[in-house]
Amino acid sequence: MGDEARGSRNGPGATGLPEQGRRFEYAPAPESREIVRLRERYDLFVDGRWVEPKTGRTFTTIDPSTEEPLAEVAEAGEEDVDLAVRAAGEAYETRWRDLPGKERAKYLFRIARALQERSREFAVLETLNNGKPIKESRDVDVPLAAAHFFYHAGWADKLEYAFPGRTPRPLGVAAQIVPWNFPLLMCAWKLAPALATGNTAVLKPASTTPLTALLLAEVIEEAELPPGVVNVVTGPGGRTGEYLARHPGVAKVAFTGSTAVGKVLRRALAGSGKRLTLELGGKAANIVFEDAPIDQAIEGIVNGIFFNQGEVCCAGSRLFVQESVAELVTRKLKARLATLRVGDPLDKNTDVGAINNRAQLEKIRELVRSAIEEGAEVYQPPCELPERGFWFPPTLLTNVAMSHRVAREEIFGPVLSILTFRTPAEAVEKANNTEYGLSAGIWTEKGSRILWMAERMKAGVVWANTFNRFDPSSPFGGYKESGFGREGGRHGLEPYLDLEGGAP
Ligand code: NAP
């Protein structure tokens, strides 16, 4: 936070009040925009320095809640990526691979602490660039990002205990490509395990949300990580991202994003010998049995689909309700939806913020239109949406059939489809009837049923009587078209390690 925003103890400050008066004055709320010091232009972070792109080009990044420009960001071309990969390769060979684990841990702890110290700044910047409610970026994204660095710092000097009887060795340079829905958190999910295991990284954030990744680079610079250990390049996925993933100097590619791009990368890297992990899309089922604690389930369902505007890979976008309670659950959901506050993402009371980008908004609109054409009924509580920016109201769809596009395709928006079932077997069959397999939620009082269901769900994560719970110690990842590989926990270290003894 700048001194002015805080009401400086040393200088006259913005109000000109004497020191005594200022101490009792209301300062701007800590989440206010003034905490963030936006640069007009952001360069690339390569080899420990901020460098202009060789392309000479920049692109504009905006606030999706207003469409106002926030900053110009460098567009990395092939030459820039070459330099970043070379810097990461040199850092790997000379400054990082052989550093004792406890030394690597110190850097990770420093990053974690800096994230905590600057958490308000990160939270406001994330909200500005992504459109998510401040209470989510402040209470979920940033603390979890710090927790990932803390957790992985703990592993850095204990890798041999994680894999007893084996000799874990790093792979080399990791290309890490992340999406826009949890811009900072996804960087933490990628960088923390890579660095803890002794790899170096070239990170590419999504083009609509590069700012917190660049602030993280600033933190990494301040933490005095050896130059080249972490490099951040910005630019269009189809060019910068793909060139980076294919680069011969890269040993490992970690990608989080859409299933479509995941498939492109899988094809592009086939036969290359590079390690690949893919965290892709989802179409999660939230399954509510008649004996469920219904009010608790309503909160879980609402969190499952409206948290982060539904722009969550594991969002519970399909609700399966046992027929006997379907009417009750639908009625309670409608009442709960009417209480959600949609609007200014920086307002601490906002529950649903802006959609991140126009293309995503159009995709949501299109899928809802298709649902209506296919016979679904729409419920949207009355709410006034801001005139500018990308907005979509919380939406319930009833009368949805399994064959409808909205029940099959990832919507990545605040739209819940309600479907019904009669028996547990039918619930399993319907929930698994999707090309995705990332997560699921089960709501019932019966412990035996939870176990029976969980064993049969084709999903990487199954929550019972809760939803959207994350912890760095829990592995996260998918089956089928939701990708492969795990992030978090001991399992999340494996994709960054050679455990067979073949790595250079
Ligand atoms: P996206 O379009 O696939 O983009 C993800 C990242 O890949 C961005 O940095 C993008 O850069 C880059 N990219 C695009 N085309 C590329 C290419 N041909 N080669 C290499 N990189 C490329 O996905 P998104 O729309 O940002 O994110 C939403 C998707 O992410 C959803 O499907 C969601 O389910 C998934 N997701 C999954 C998880 C998980 O853990 N499973 C977590 C979060 C999100 P540009 O931004 O420049 O296009």
Written description of the protein model:
With about 500 residues, the chain is an alpha/beta fold. The protein has 2 domains: about 45-280, Aldehyde Dehydrogenase, Chain A, domain 1; about 285-480, 3-Layer(aba) Sandwich (Aldehyde Dehydrogenase, Chain A, domain 2). The protein has 17 helices and 20 strands. The protein has helices spanning about 5, 20-25, 80-95, 100-115, 120-130, 135-155, 160, 185-195, 210-220, 235-245, 260-270, 295-305, 325-335, 360-375, 405-410, 425-430, 445-455; strands at about 40, 45, 50, 60-65, 70-75, 170, 175, 200-205, 230, 250-255, 275-280, 285-290, 320, 375-380, 395-400, 415-420, 440-445, 460-465, 485, 495-500. The strands form 5 sheets. A 7-stranded mixed sheet has the order 14-15-16-13-12-17-18, sandwiched between helices. Strands 9-8-7-10-11-19 form a 6-stranded mixed sheet, with helices on both faces. A 3-stranded mixed sheet has the order 1-5-4, covered by helices on one side. It is globular. It starts with a helix and ends in a 6-residue tail after the last strand. It binds NADP nicotinamide-adenine-dinucleotide phosphate. NADP nicotinamide-adenine-dinucleotide phosphate binds near residues 180 and 256.
